[in-house]
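Same chain as my last thread, 227 residues:
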Amino acid sequence: MPARRRKPAAGPTIETPEDIRRGCRALRRRCRHMRRIHDAIGDPPLRRRQGGFPGLARIVVGQQLSIASADAIWNRMSTGIHPFEPAAVLRLEDTELRALGLSRPKIKTLRGIAAAVAEGELDFDAIGCVDEGQRREHLTSLPGIGPWSADIYGLFCLGAQDGFAPGDLALQEAVRIALKSESRPGQDELLAMAERWKPWRGVAARLLWSYYAWSKSSQSTPTGRAS
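reply #2:
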């Protein structure tokens, strides 16, 4: 049987550290705030993740949790479920999933995603080939998957070069800190700000997450979540 060909992505993607460097150079030219952020922290990490069912499942695990807590639960899940695929998740009892650290709402969401894949309602190859709006609409039609989860999937699992997550609180707070504002921007305001960062909003988001972590670390030192 011939090897299955990978479908083309819907738009440019971030695949390597060189892509990050190219994005940083472009953002420095068009935005003085991005230039100042980049001067402070340098190039942000690539932060690419596995896509498909495991990728979206990991995002569900991380909803409203610290990075450390999410990583701990994910490590238990990826170790305890072999192979990590929809059928394996559907076979487990709720008590078994709770023992791995999942809450009842997240169990329901994970089962819903697994069922959608098993029944052919969710095709991750197809999701990677549509534009941001279509991807968001399709993913958010699944119970428990909101705009934030859909945006994070596009950013990290698909590597969308122009992906963004205006609802992410760490991004909003990073902008507040960078602009020395008293209040952080809301989703609509942040999305409007991000217009100037196109078509490299995916790199801008990485810069802001890294800047947020850097600023928190600087404040905690005696001398002085990214999602």
